[in-house]
Amino acid sequence: MIYEKVLKELLENPNGFSGEVLANRLKTSRNSVWKAVNRLRREGYIIDGSTNQGYRLSSETNILNAEEVRAYLDPKITARLEIHKTVNSTNTRAKEIAENEQTYLRRNFMDSIVVADSQSDGRGRKGRRFVSNAACGIYMSFLLHPAEQVREAVCITSATAVAVAEAIERLVRTDVKIKWVNDLLINGKKICGILTEASMDFESGGLKYVVLGIGINVKHTDFPEEIAEIASSIEDETQVALSRNRLCAEIINSVYDMLTNEASYMDEYRRRSAVIGKRVRVIRGDETYDATVEGIDGMGELIVVRDGQTVKLNSGEISIRL
Question: Looking at per-residue confidence, does 58 or 116 come out higher?
Answer without folding.
Answer: 116
